[in-house]
User: What shape does this take?
Amino acid sequence: MSSIHDLASLVARLLIAPLFIVFGFEKITGYASSAGYMEAYGLPGILLPIAIAAELGGGLAILFGFFSRWAALALAIFCVVTALVFHTAWSGDGGQGQFINFMKNLALAGGLLLLAANGPGRYAIND
Assistant: This one.
């Protein structure tokens, strides 16, 4: 059973990490628009480097299994916070999309909490 757990853990990490890596990198390449988006929701753009570090750094940590429990816990918190801040406008135009993004973020947080609880499996740099 352990080999199935280790393989499933690796595949799960390979599936979840790119989401954060891509969006973290996207925030770097579109820095001004990302900062403007944050500011439109009442957050200061000065927090953008923290979001980039969380997404890009946390995604890479999960991908390689390097302090992945801590990275997963941090990203789970990040997902819940971003769901509550950016994806609660469920009425009007785009409401269904916002609701889908809200639920996606909560589902990601759940998967990340499983990673934090169960660890990265054998195929990782460290636990």
Remarks:
- The two ends are 19 Å apart (CA to CA).
